[in-house]
């Protein structure tokens, strides 16, 4: 089976933690998984700070890896209720994959981290789905049969998994037990769907 691509941008590490937890759920299904980042386009202007290690040591995705994946988990920090510019910048470089139809009928999920509970997680997730739908991907959220979706007092939505970081970006900021469980479930679901769709299409 071709690998599932977990692709994200993270400046302070919260979105990276979601990515790694989703990857564990994918791997639990004996499905190959690769974890990649997109190129940062605004670090020079913003500067780098001591807490910033998130994308270091993680390889940058290639368009070939995107084309060859059997499914995609796409993650971004919430920025003004939308995806971060590096993620959009990467998506805007995928015209040739759109022309070739490389991603048609492949499953995809989206994930995000924001500092505040009501700071635009769901709008970010929905906006990330739009380009993936233009690519013909099959969007996969999370069903309410996952008990943590009912119980979470932190992140976690039916549109995709999330983390509420509060102001903890600089401090070690961990996923809650519910967030972690939902990431695992999301990864598992993506892997199960990727297997089915790879066989059927
Ligand atoms: C330019 C910018 C815009 C942001 N906009 C929002 C926002 O709309 N809502 C929110 O709750 N947090 C917002 N944040 C905070 C980040 O979403 C939050 O710190 C997130 O956890 C960062 O993820 P990371 O650790 O993966 O970099 C913003 C941060 C930046 C730098």
Describe this structure in words.
The chain is an alpha/beta fold and 201 residues long. The protein has a single domain (4-200), classed as Rossmann fold. It has eight helices and seven strands, in the order βαβααββααβαβαβα. The chain has helices spanning 14-27, 43-46, 63-68, 85-91, 95-100, 121-134, 147-151, 177-200, and strands spanning 4-8, 33-37, 71-79, 82-83, 107-114, 138-139, 162-164. Strands 1, 2, 3, 4, 5, 6 and 7 form a seven-stranded mixed β-sheet that branches. The chain is globular and about 40 Å long. The two termini are 13 Å apart. Residues 10-15, 54, 77-81, 113-116, 119-120, 165, 169 line the site of flavin mononucleotide (FMN).
Please give a quick description of this structure.
The chain has 201 residues and is an alpha/beta fold.
Computed over alpha carbons, the radius of gyration is 16 Å
Largest sheet: 7 strands, mixed
Which ligands occur here? flavin mononucleotide
Fold-level CATH name? Rossmann fold
Question: How do the strands and helices of this protein lay out in sequence?
Answer:
Blueprint: E1 4-8, H1 14-27, E2 33-37, H2 43-46, H3 63-68, E3 71-79, E4 82-83, H4 85-91, H5 95-100, E5 107-114, H6 121-134, E6 138-139, H7 147-151, E7 162-164, H8 177-200
Parallel strand pairs: 1-2, 1-3, 3-5, 5-6, 5-7
Antiparallel strand pairs: 3-4
Helix pairs in contact: 1-8
The protein binds flavin mononucleotide (FMN).
């Amino acid at each position: 089976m071709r690998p599932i691509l977990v692709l994200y941008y993270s400046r302070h590490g919260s979105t990276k933690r979601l990515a790694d937890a989703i990857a564990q759920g994918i791997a639990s299904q004996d499905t190959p998984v690769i974890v990649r980042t997109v190129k940062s386009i605004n670090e020079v202007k913003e500067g780098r700070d001591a807490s910033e290690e998130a994308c270091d040591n993680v390889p940058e995705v290639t368009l070939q890896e995107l084309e060859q994946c059997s499914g995609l988990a796409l993650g971004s920090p919430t920025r003004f209720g939308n995806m971060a510019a590096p993620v959009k910048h990467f998506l805007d470089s995928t015209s040739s994959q759109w022309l070739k139809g490389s991603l048609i009928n492949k499953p995809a999920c989206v994930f995000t981290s924001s500092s505040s509970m009501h700071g635009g997680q769901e709008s970010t997730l929905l906006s990330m789905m739009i380009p993936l739908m233009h690519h013909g991907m099959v969007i996969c959220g999370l069903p309410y049969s996952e008990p943590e979706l009912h119980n979470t007092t932190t992140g976690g939505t039916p549109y995709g998994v999330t983390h509420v970081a509060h102001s903890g970006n600089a401090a070690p900021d961990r996923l809650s037990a519910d967030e972690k469980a939902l990431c695992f479930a999301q990864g598992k679901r993506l892997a199960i769907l990727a297997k089915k769709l790879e066989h059927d299409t």
